[in-house]
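User: Predict the structure for this protein chain, please.
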Amino acid sequence: QVQLVESGGGLVQPGGSVRLSCAYSGSEFRLGTMSWYRQAPGKQRELVVTSFPGGTGNYLDSMKGRFTISRDSAKNTVYLLMNSLKPEDTGVYYCQVFGLVKGGTWSDYWGQGTQVTVSS
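Assistant: Here is the predicted structure, written as C-alpha cells:
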C-alpha cells in the first residue's frame, strides 16, 4: 500500500509564507505524477499544480508566481511553497500521487489534507 503524510499547514498572516510537505511511502511503488489540490470552504476541490517526471504543469491562475511545487526524489517528498499568501488561499490542501504498485494498476493516492488559514 501507498501512504502519504502531509505536514506544514497552520495559521499564517496575509503576505506570509508556508511550505507544505507530502511524504509518500510504499514498497515497490513506481511514481508517476505528484499534485497539490486545494479545497476552499464551501467549494469543490481544485487542482493547484502537478509535477510531472519531466517538468511542472500549469498552476491555478490565482497562484501563479506565488506558489512553487518541488520534489525531492531521494526523500520521496513533494513540497508546495506558498508565498504572498492571501485570505482567499485559505483551505485544506491535499497531496495526491499517481503511481503503480507492483502487481496493481496505476492509481491515485491521497494525503489526509492539511489546513492552511490565512488571516490576521
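The chain has a mean pLDDT of 92.
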